[in-house]
Amino acid sequence: MPTPSNPSSGATGGIPEDTGAPDAPVTGAATSTSSHTDPAAPPGTETDTEAGTETGSAAGTAAGTGKGAGSGQGAGPRAGKVAAGAAALRRRPLTAALFLLPALVVLGALVVYPIGYSVYRSFMDADGSSFVGLDNFAEIFTDDGTLIAFRNNLVWVIVAPAVCTALGLIFAVLTERVRWGTAFKLLVFMPMAISMLASGIIFRLVYEQDPDRGIANAMWTTVHDTFADTAPWPEARPRTDAPLKAAEGGAYLTRETVDAASPVSLPLVGIPPKEASGAAPAKKAAKAEGGKVTGTVWLDFVKGGRSEHGVIDQQEKALAGIEVEAVKDGRTVAKATTAEDGTFTLPASADGATLRLPAGNFAQPYNGVDWLGPTLVTPAIIGSYVWMWAGFAMVLIAAGLAGVPRELLEQARVDGASEWKVFHKITVPLLAPVLGVVTVTLMINVLKIFDLVYIISPGATQREANVLALQLYLKSFGGKPDQGAGSAIAVILLLLVVPVMILNIRRLRRESRR
Question: Could you tell me where the Polar residues compositional bias lies (predicted)?
């Protein structure tokens, strides 16, 4: 049986006296109910359309005047607050303008005015005295340096955000599974506390060509030398009056053929005494039996110059590990390597041959990779940027990962999905909004990159590492300043950044509506 309404309830829409819940105060916002007519209700009941309409109107009036708590059960507290705030602004526009004025002044002085003046200046000549139209834009699109900057900026926008986001995603996912994940995140994020200037100086030293100074090449040469033989005495060479002469490819040949009757003396110089201080004393080779050829290779130098050229003195050092070849008619017939005392012995087939010291004995040591050369300077600088900003990406992605429902992941594992499928099919799609934020933020950041490129790239290869922000600086304040062309580059850089910013703002608005 339908329950008749209480006549004393008035415009409350017929609330039953006993609903099984404690009594609560009734407000205009809370009394908004759906309009509903019960076909079985008696004609005198209050649940008709008119009662519901009156109640909704009361709630709407309360929200509009800022006295109600909301606009009914269909609208939450947030909508009521927004409506109340809008009504307050409409009633007091002067107050709102006064609050906004300081921010508007700062924004106009630091953002709007520089943009407007740069646009104006881009249509003027170098000193700003005459109007040149689009000539500055035509110049920068035909200038080789600016075109290289465009190309490098494209590489930056594609590579740097992608690598930072990928590493941040990997670090965020993996650190969830280890107990020391927090410590690892701290270490990865720490470079963000270092300024671009300091990071540039650090990596300028890291990429030094000299392995004794540059960490990158010190590690690289260590690995290389582990698997490759190095020359024993790379700086050794004969004197001009020595019995050796230079040959093609860096080798040395004896001026005359050798015979088994007399030991061969092969003196060399050019080695700092400090490097040979640990070598054994040189020993004069004895005459061998059976027609064999013997000889000695040594450092023909004593500190202070108290030695006779071509003669082994007591203080002179042996050169061990040098390969000696016997050559007849352009063909190698025998080989030997000098011992610790510098002596060597060749078989009888070397009798009458010319001796050769191959170029491998004197090859310069491997000095690593030219990180800051024309080929690798841009990838090397991008590597330093990734070192700084991968932690930023990791922290944001880890925050998003904390909001991923664990029930979905566990259910997928229960259903037999592998860890890769859980990551690829569930985790990454759920993190798509966060990944979008990180990628777009880094894209805007790399479009304006300046500090690292200016500090890390040497003067000889700065042209190959050039980017738009650096080209803007060089054009405006370089050797031949042209602030008209520099302003044109600034306008183009602004036009490149604005679409990315608009994309980011639209995405944030879509997220706020959800």
Answer: 1-10
Phi, psi dihedrals of residue 298, rounded to the nearest 5°: -150, 170
Whether this prediction's pTM lies above 0.85 is answered by no
Give 343-361 as a DSSP string. EEEE-GGGTTPEEEE-GGG
CA distance readout (Å), 358 to 160, 190, 361, 398: 46, 51, 6, 59
Euclidean distance between CA atoms 162 and 439, whole angstroms: 7
What are the pLDDT digits (tens) for 314-369? 788 999 999 999 999 889 999 999 999 999 999 999 999 999 999 888 888 888 89
Q: Are 322 and 244 in contact (CB under 8 A)?
A: no
Euclidean distance between CA atoms 252 and 356, whole angstroms: 6
Q: Tell which CATH architecture fits domain 136-207+372-512.
A: Orthogonal Bundle (1.10)
Amino acid at 237: R
Domain boundaries, the chain: 136-207+372-512, 237-361
Encode burial over 390-419: b for 16+ CB neighbours within 10 A, e otherwise: bbbbbbbbbebbeeeeeeebeebeeeebee
Three-class secondary structure assignment of 416-450: CCCHHHHHHHHHHHHCHHHHHHHHHHHHHHHHCCC
CA distance 88 to 83: 9
Q: Which two tokens stand for residue 306?
A: 């108290």
The pLDDT tens digits for 288-301 are 888 899 999 999 88
Over the stretch 158-175, which tens digit does the pLDDT of each residue have? 999 999 999 999 999 988
How far, CA to CA in Å, does 284 sit from each of 79, 225, 252, 339, 350? 101, 32, 21, 12, 19
147 token code pair = 């075109």
Burial of 421 (0-12, 13-18, 19+ CB in 10 A): middle
Asked if residue 239 lies in contact with residue 267, where contact means CB atoms within 8 angstroms, the answer is yes
Calculate the CA 122 to chain-centre distance. 32
398: left (phi over 0), alpha (psi -120 to 50) or beta: alpha
Pairing assessment for the beta strands 264-268 and 293-299 based on DSSP bridges: parallel
d(CA 514, CA 503): 17
**What number of residues does the chain have?**
514
**What does the alpha-carbon distance between residue 496 and residue 448 come to, in Å, rounded to a whole number?**
10
Query: Given this model, what pLDDT does residue 274 score?
Result: 83
